[in-house]
Amino acid sequence: MDTQPRWLDPEQKVAWDNFIRMQETLIGRLSRRIQADSGMSAADYVVLVSLTERGNGRMRFLDLAKRVEWEKSRMSHQVTRMAKRGLVAKEECPDDGRGAFIVATPAGYKAIEEAAPQHVEDVRRLFIDALTPNQLATLGRISKRILDHMEKQPD
User: Fold this and answer.
1) Which residues contact 103 (CB under 8 A, 6 or more apart)?
2) Rounded Cα gap, residues 128 and 152, in angstroms
3) I want to staple 135 with a disulfide (CB 3.0 to 4.6 A). Which of 4, 67, 130, 131 is the partner?
4) Residue 97: its pLDDT value, please?
5) Which of 116, 56, 67 has the alpha carbon at shortest distance from 91?
6) How many structural domains compose the chain?
7) CATH code at position 49
8) Confidence at residue 47, expressed as pLDDT on a 0 to 100 scale
9) Residue ranges of the chain with pLDDT lower than 50?
10) pTM of the model
11) 130: domain range?
């Protein structure tokens, strides 16, 4: 059975196009700023934030990949690059011989602690300051609703 695509109407297309353009522009600018300010890539920052926000600075490899929505191969390459620079270490998982933990090293903690203040200022300047408190709360609720909806959908 041949089903017709459910094309976006003009209002939906404008909303989608503006969302995509906003997201890509914001991520692009934040990524360039992190690189310029700290020498870290945006991917380095995402991994280190994910690890250090966990409290003990360690996560199972697959949990980390899932948290940042990356394929295993991308995570593997990123971890290898970061390990070579001393930002993370890979440790065997004692209860699962096939699994591994990714651990933020002292150098990784230092790098994120030095980069985070400027990154937060950039997030505030480019994103937070553009919205009223009410608009920010609304965006937070909308974002949560979309995330919850996606959790119910197959990949």
Assistant:
1) 51, 57, 58, 88, 89, 90, 91
2) 29
3) 131
4) 65
5) 56
6) 1
7) 1.10.10.10
8) 96
9) none
10) 0.87
11) 38-151
